[in-house]
Amino acid sequence: MDWESRVSYRKAAPMRAEDQARIKDELESRVAQAYTRRTEQGGPRLSEVLEDSLYHERRRLKEDRGSPKREADNHFWDQVQAELRRASETTERTLLRRVARHYTEEIAGNFNPRVYQSVTRALPPALGLLLNAVSPLKLVRKLPELPSIDEQVVIQGEVEHLHRLHDLGTVIMVPTHVSNLDSIIIGYALYRMGLPPFIYGAGLNLFSNPLISFFMHNLGAYTVDRKKQDPFYKDVLKEYATLTLESGYDNIFFPGGTRSRSGSIEMRLKLGLLGTGVSAYVHNLRRGAPQPKIYIVPATLSYQLVLEAETLIDDFLKEVGKSRYIIEDDEFSRPRQVFEFMSKLVSLDSKIHVTVSRGFDPFGNPVDDDGQSHDPCGRVVDTARYTWRNKEPVIDADRDAEYTREVGEQISQSFLKDNVVECTHVVALAVFGLMRARNPRLDVLRLLRTGGSDEDLELTAVYREVERLLNELRAKAQRSEIRLGPSLSGDATEVVTDALARYTSYHNRPAAQRRGDRLVPSDRNLILYYQNRLEGYGLQPFPALTKDHRALSSR
Questions:
Q1: In the chain, what are the domains?
Q2: What is the pLDDT of residue 337?
C-alpha cells in the first residue's frame, strides 16, 4: 500500500500527559546529577554554574525589555540570587534543580490531540478555499468539490522509506529552513503522508501572538529561546530533546538553527540538538528498549518565492545576523502580507516542494528500508558497537561529536541533491553572473551597492546565459545531483518570462523586470538572494558566497 492511499492512517499522537510529567522529572534529575558529577570530577562548582546562569539571564532581561515574562523571570532570578548568597552545598543542589525545572517548564510543549485532530480536519479545505478565492474562475471550475492546499504542496522523494524507518525506530527529521512557513508546511506534509505529528522546537518569537502560540503549543511545538546564552539552558534543551527521543517521540530539528538569511542551502549546520540522536540511542541500549534505533531523515523545502526574502537578505548583507539572531518584525509577522503571499502562490500555480531524502543512523551511515546501517563498502554494520567501551554502551562527548559532524556532512549533501531549483533561481543566477562578468573589478558588496557599469542587460544575453545554465542543470539532474522544478520544462525564453512574472507578482520591488529588449535588475539584493539557492553547484566561475555559505565571497 503506497503512502498516498493511507493518509487517514494515524498512530497515537504525542505527547501523552503522563509522558510529559515523567520527562520533566527525569530531565531535572538527570541534568542535576550530570552537573554534580562534573563538580566531583574537578569541574566548575555548582555555585559557579548558578552564578553563570544569573549573569546570562540578567543580561538578557536587561536587553529584552519587551519580553512578556520579564517581570516573572526577574522575580525568579531575584529569589535564586538571594538564596545563593548563603547557600550550602545541599541548597546549591536544590537551586540547580529549581533552575532546571524553570527552564524545562518554559521549553516543554503542551500537545493536545483534540486540537490536532480538529485543526488537521479543518485546515486543508479552509486554507484551500481561502487561497483559491483569489481565482474565482478556478474555484467555480472545481465546484462542488472544494479546493485544497494539496495542489500547492508537492510531497516527493523517499516517503515510503520514511514510513519504514518510522515503524522500526524513532525519527529525527531535519529540514532546510527558508521561511517561518516551514514549520506549517512540514507539519502539514507529515499529516498528508499519514504520519503522526512530530515534536519540534520553534523560536520563542513565534509564540508572541496568543492565537498562533495556542496552536503551536498544541500541535507539537516546544519553545527554543535563542536569546538565552546560558550554557545550562542549552544543556536542559538538549536533554529535553534527548528524553523525547528516548520516549519514542519523533522530532523535527532545523539544523541550520535559523532561517537561511542568504537564501542558500545550509552548508554549515548547528549540531547541538542533532547530537541528541547518539545520546538517545545509547540510553535506549542501556535500558534494553525494544526499538532502540534512531534514524535521521533530511527533507528539503523548496519555494519559487520566499515570503521574507527582502528582510532576510537585508539582514544578511548588514552582517548583523549573529548579533540580532532573531528578526522580530518581518513579513511573517504581518497577517495581510502572509495572505497576499499565499494567494499569489495559487494565482500563479506556484508549488512548494517537500522532498524527503534517504535516512542515516546517528553515526552518518546510510540505512536501508529494513533499518539496517551500511558502511562505505555496503556491508551491514552493528551500530551498537559504535557506542561500546568494554562492550558496554557509553556516552563519550568527543567521540559522539565526531559522529555528529559526519552526519552533518551527509545532511548537507542530501540538501544539495534534493534541492528543487526553479525559474526564479536560474534567472537570478544568470543576471547576477552577467553583472559580475561585466564588472570584474568590483567585489560582490560593491556590485550590489552600485550596480556596476550598466543599468540594464541585453535580453538576448540573458536568454543565452539561461540556456547555458539549463543545459548544465539538466545534466546534473540526470546524474541525480539536483532536482528541476516544473517551471524549467520550457526553453530559455519561457523560463525568463515565467521568472519575471513571479518576481513582479509578489515583491514590492521586483528583483528584475523587462523594459523593451532590455532587462533591468530592479532589486539587486533580491537577485542575490534567489541566485544563492544555486550556490555550491559550480555553475559560475566565481561563487558569490564563501564555501560554508555564511559570508560574501571576497572577490
A1: 17-107 (no CATH), 160-325+356-414 (3.40.1130), 420-534 (no CATH)
A2: 54
